[in-house]
Amino acid sequence: MSFLHHLAATAACSWVLVTLLSSCSGRAGDACRNSTDCASGLACVGPDDGVSCGIAPTQGCETDLSCSGGLVCNAVVDQCSVSGIGSACGAPCTATSCGSGLRCNAKGSCEPIPCNEGFACTVIQTCNPSLAQAQIVYESSQGCEPIPCDGDADCPATTACVNSICQTHAGTCEMQTVVP
Question: Are 164 and 149 spatial neighbours (Cβ–Cβ below 8 Å)?
Fold first, then answer.
């Protein structure tokens, strides 16, 4: 092999190696918009994807009929629930006894305040009041839903499109943790 052929072959291999290395992004901790931006074994986790609690959501009752002894089925704030709402049997509520984002309804049960009646959705959500209406208490919500997106341009200023929904900023490539 002549020197020029060797040099050309070496340059081509170096170019391939540099190209492969430059496309190896998405290490743990790197910013991402979806899991294809991350290396194998990592997933793109958005800042607003919700917490992994490791415990089941609070679903103590479905309706008032699930409770006995004069107790009612109250909506409760539950950080382990997808909607942030759980349920528990309890005494009838008063105007001041329900948690944040909840109100006491005419039946004496705590319920979420719908977004079209005073609850403010975040900048990365839209108000869909039909989501607030649910037959089962722990399936109710304030009616705020994520804004779907195909890219950052679909989201409000200073936010990012991560995993096809608007989030407060870019996601991070992280090891996937399975939480029971």
Answer: yes
Q: Which residues contact 33 (CB under 8 A, 6 or more apart)?
A: 44, 152, 160, 161, 162, 163, 170, 171
User: Which pLDDT score, from 0 to 100, does residue 179 have?
Assistant: 60
* pLDDT-derived band at 133, boundaries 50, 70, 90: confident
Distance CA 113, CA 49 (A): 22
Q: What is the pTM of this model?
A: 0.73
Tell me the C-alpha distance between 144 and 125, whole Å.
Answer: 6
Secondary element (H or E) of residue 144: strand 144-146
DSSP 166: E
Number of Cβ within a 10 Å radius of residue 141: 23
**Residue 109 contacts residue 74 (beta carbons within 8 Å):** yes
Q: Read off the pLDDT of residues 146-159 as tens digits, 9 standing for 90 and up.
A: 999 999 999 999 99
Tell which phi-psi region holds residue 108, choosing left (phi > 0), alpha (psi between -120 and 50) or beta.
left
List all residues 6 or more positions away from 160 whose beta carbon is below 8 Å from its beta carbon: 33, 152, 166, 167, 168, 169, 170, 171
Q: What is the mean pLDDT of the chain?
A: 85
Q: How many CA atoms lie within 13 A of 84 on its CB side?
A: 18
Choose between 180 and 95: higher pLDDT: 95
